[in-house]
């Protein structure tokens, strides 16, 4: 059965691919934030595990290809590994259910080990599934066409690539929205089970759709794997060359010719072409090392930025959608506009030059990321080291105050109702505080633990100076753009305080509440109640990622008078500043990735495509492993420096590649095949002639 000149079975395969990619990219989009916020891993561990997972996803395709070609056939491989995949996605979804181990119902899992074990199991199954079916699905699609449908087949691969990007685009938009929802049985959290559950459901849909089309598929029998033959041929050549290493054996033109005792000329010629391309692949992993950090480092970078786009609030993991959106726009534009323009300018933009330009652009994108990071770092607060203490002063009285940090460290003047920023002291040197305000003075002897922040409240009253040293229980900037808010009651009587839906309880005069988390970008109402008399005021917008102390000063009529003191500045660098680096990296991907595969296929015989695809995917895997090694070995404390390091490494590799490309000679596999055919024909004719002569001679006997 066919439709629009295409085999009907194709539509099942395309829907299946769309669902599978939606499932994979959706899960991958929220993965690094799941590690960071749910499993409570730090940035470096989250990045490391993320890249280990991606590397696994690109190593397993080789396994999938071997199973399909040598044993089960493509159809059975896709079905059985999709089942493994679906189970993996389901396990992932279960692993993120907070209520699974949260027995005391405080909103964080009590037994993190259970969640980690389940997550790792899920990820391994997913890597097996997605990797195993990756090389089979597109090839299985190609199998559905007859030999005379070359045009339709090419069109199919374009639609196939589009369905991959449509799937990844939609899921990168939708999954983060699901993650940002609040859900949970006993306590409300970010909804990771839903963010992983929807991809799991789609994977199941994808599997059902694929099996439904079973009757229509053209199923090609497995006929052995080319990779195995090529590896054996190379292995034999090396072994044989080693055996004949002494001078008396004549040299051969190419080291692979040493396999000619056992393997036919055609296989050797084809293997030579493949190795020539694979040799060019050696520098390529460095590109992927940078490219795949969109999902790890760049997403973590977005968590320290301001995601307020007017009425829309962008989640940090949604910035990754910039890539598929741009891909869908750029691929046609580059093909239809950019390349023809370059051609008009009489520049020969060969595939290898395109790949070189791609590498250069990716390196540029990381320079852009480093520049953004430098701007972000300026806004990040500095927290005290182990042997240091930080103190800020809030003057709650009507007189100015002077605080002397003793012995003989520094003097600070604070106006009435004002506050200072945090000042850093060596804990061992700070022993006393001498406070003067109005006509009163007071000396406090202090002994601090170190490594913490404190707030000193000072108020000159009729009975003398009141000085309280508060402990500020904040050691890092609030995550995910939330804000931390606490109150100090500067009224002469106790009040009951609420802000939005959060109650701060009753505060006695001059006491401070604990910090509470509030989502960024909102304006909540502050209400103070005393003996059924209530005063209220709408809080100012706190931005994203800030911490504030709000001082309750007066209640006049029903209006509350408050003063804000900033403890941690909000994220001020806007997420839109990430767009340039995404744009440059997408341009790099278009000229690098699309060209790379086309070039590989044009330089090798058709039956060797599987080997090249395996090699190409291997470069992605190795790239992710490079991230692990570089990030682990570099011990750079500054994130911008790591970006610059990656940019420099890729630039160096890019230069090496340009030199290799300069010495590369393009081959036409069809010509070589034709030569081989010609030689075989001649040989066959020779053999025939010999046979005929022999039989003539026999008949004359």
TrEMBL record:
SUPFAM superfamilies named in the record: MFS general substrate transporter
Superkingdom per UniProt: Eukaryota
Transmembrane segment boundaries: 48-68, 75-92, 112-133, 154-174, 194-213, 273-291, 325-342, 354-374, 610-631, 643-664
Molecular function as annotated in GO: oligopeptide transmembrane transporter activity; symporter activity
Annotated region described as Disordered, given as residue ranges: 677-701
One Pfam family in the UniProt entry: PTR2
Recorded topology in the membrane: Multi-pass membrane protein
Compartments where found: Apical cell membrane; Membrane
Reactions it catalyzes: N-acetyl-D-muramoyl-L-alanyl-D-isoglutamine(out) + 2 H(+)(out) = N-acetyl-D-muramoyl-L-alanyl-D-isoglutamine(in) + 2 H(+)(in); carnosine(out) + H(+)(out) = carnosine(in) + H(+)(in); L-phenylalanyl-L-phenylalanine(out) + H(+)(out) = L-phenylalanyl-L-phenylalanine(in) + H(+)(in); L-methionyl-L-phenylalanyl-L-methionine(out) + H(+)(out) = L-methionyl-L-phenylalanyl-L-methionine(in) + H(+)(in)
Location, primary (coarse class): membrane
Biased composition annotated in UniProt, kind: Basic and acidic residues: 679-701
Entry GO terms, CC: apical plasma membrane
Keywords: Cell membrane, Glycoprotein, Membrane, Peptide transport, Protein transport, Symport, Transmembrane, Transmembrane helix, Transport
Alphabetized InterPro entries for the sequence: MFS_trans_sf, Oligopep_transport, POT_fam, PTR2_symporter_CS
GO BP, sorted A to Z: protein transport
Entry annotated with the keyword Glycosyltransferase: no
Family that this chain belongs to: Belongs to the major facilitator superfamily. Proton-dependent oligopeptide transporter (POT/PTR) (TC 2.A.17) family.
Binding partners and assembly: Interacts (via extracellular domain region) with trypsin.
Function: Electrogenic proton-coupled amino-acid transporter that transports oligopeptides of 2 to 4 amino acids with a preference for dipeptides. Transports neutral and monovalently charged peptides with a proton to peptide stoichiometry of 1:1 or 2:1. Primarily responsible for the absorption of dietary di- and tripeptides from the small intestinal lumen. Mediates transepithelial transport of muramyl and N-formylated bacterial dipeptides contributing to recognition of pathogenic bacteria by the mucosal immune system.
Name recorded for this polypeptide: Solute carrier family 15 member 1
Organism in which the protein naturally occurs: Sagittarius serpentarius (Secretary bird)
Taxonomic lineage: Eukaryota, Metazoa, Chordata, Craniata, Vertebrata
């Amino acid at each position: 059965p066919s439709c629009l000149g295409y085999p009907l079975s194709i539509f099942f395969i395309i829907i299946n691919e769309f669902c599978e990619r939606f499932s994979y990219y959706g899960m991958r989009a929220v993965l690094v934030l799941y590690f960071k916020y749910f499993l409570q891993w730090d940035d470096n561990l989250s990045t490391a595990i993320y890249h280990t997972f991606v590397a696994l996803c690109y190593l397993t395709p080789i396994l999938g290809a071997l199973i399909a070609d040598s044993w089960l056939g493509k159809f059975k491989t896709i079905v059985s590994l999709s089942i493994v995949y679906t189970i993996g996605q389901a396990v992932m979804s279960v692993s993120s259910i907070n209520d699974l181990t949260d027995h005391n119902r405080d909103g964080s899992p009590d037994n993190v080990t259970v969640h980690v074990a389940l997550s790792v199991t899920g990820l391994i199954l997913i890597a097996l599934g997605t990797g195993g079916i990756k090389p089979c699905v597109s090839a299985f699609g190609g199998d559905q066409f007859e030999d005379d449908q070359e045009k339709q087949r090419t069109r199919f691969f374009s639609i196939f690539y589009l369905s991959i990007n449509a799937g990844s685009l939609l899921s990168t938009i939708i999954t983060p929205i699901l993650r940002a929802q609040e859900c949970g049985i006993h306590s409300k959290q970010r909804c990771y089970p839903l963010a992983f559950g929807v991809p799991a459901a789609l994977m199941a849909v994808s599997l059902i759709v694929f099996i439904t089309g079973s009757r229509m598929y053209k199923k090609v029998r497995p006929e052995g794997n080319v990779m195995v033959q090529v590896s054996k041929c190379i292995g034999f050549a090396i072994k044989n060359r080693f055996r004949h290493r002494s001078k008396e054996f004549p040299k051969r033109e190419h080291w692979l010719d040493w396999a000619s005792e056992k393997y036919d000329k055609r296989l050797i010629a084809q293997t030579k072409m493949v190795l020539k391309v694979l040799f060019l692949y050696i520098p390529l992993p460095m590109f992927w090392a940078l490219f795949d950090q969109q999902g790890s480092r760049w997403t973590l970078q977005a968590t320290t930025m301001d995601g307020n786009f007017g009425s829309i609030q962008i989640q940090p993991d949604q910035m990754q959608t910039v890539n598929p959106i741009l891909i869908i726009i750029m691929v046609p534009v580059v093909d239809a506009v950019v390349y023809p323009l370059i051609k008009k300018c009489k520049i020969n933009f060969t595939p290898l030059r395109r790949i070189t330009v791609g590498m250069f652009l990716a390196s540029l994108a990381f320079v852009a990321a480093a520049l953004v990071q430098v701007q972000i770092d300026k806004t990040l607060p500095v927290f005290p080291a182990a042997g240091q203490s930080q103190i800020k002063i809030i003057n709650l009285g009507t007189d100015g105050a002077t605080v002397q940090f003793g012995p003989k460290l520094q003097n600070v003047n604070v106006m009435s109702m004002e506050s200072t920023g945090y000042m850093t002291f060596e804990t061992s040197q700070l022993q006393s505080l001498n406070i003067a305000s109005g006509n009163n003075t007071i000396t406090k002897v202090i002994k601090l633990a170190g490594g913490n922040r404190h707030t000193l409240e000072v108020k000159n009253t009729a009975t003398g100076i009141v000085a309280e040293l508060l402990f500020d229980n904040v050691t890092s900037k609030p995550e995910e753009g939330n804000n931390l808010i606490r109150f100090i009651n500067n009224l002469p009587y106790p009040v009951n305080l609420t802000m939005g839906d959060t109650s701060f309880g009753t505060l006695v005069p001059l006491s401070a509440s604990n910090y509470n988390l509030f989502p960024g970008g909102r304006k909540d109402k502050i209400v103070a109640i005393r003996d059924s008399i209530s005063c209220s005021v709408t809080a100012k917008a706190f931005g994203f990622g800030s911490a504030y102390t709000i001082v309750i000063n007066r209640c006049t009529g029903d209006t509350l008078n408050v003063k804000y003191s900033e403890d941690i500045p909000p994220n001020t660098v806007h997420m839109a500043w990430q767009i340039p680096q995404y744009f440059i990296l997408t341009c790099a991907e278009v000229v690098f990735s699309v060209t790379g595969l086309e070039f590989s296929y044009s330089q090798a015989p058709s039956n060797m495509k599987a080997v090249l695809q395996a090699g190409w995917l291997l470069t992605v895997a190795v790239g992710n492993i490079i991230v692990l090694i570089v990030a682990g070995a570099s011990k750079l404390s500054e994130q911008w420096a790591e970006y610059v390091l990656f940019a420099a490494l890729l630039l160096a590799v890019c230069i090496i590649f340009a030199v290799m490309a300069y010495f590369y000679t393009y081959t036409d596999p069809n010509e070589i095949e034709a030569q081989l055919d010609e030689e075989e024909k001649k040989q066959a004719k020779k053999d025939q002639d010999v046979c005929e002569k022999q039989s003539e001679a026999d008949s004359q006997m």
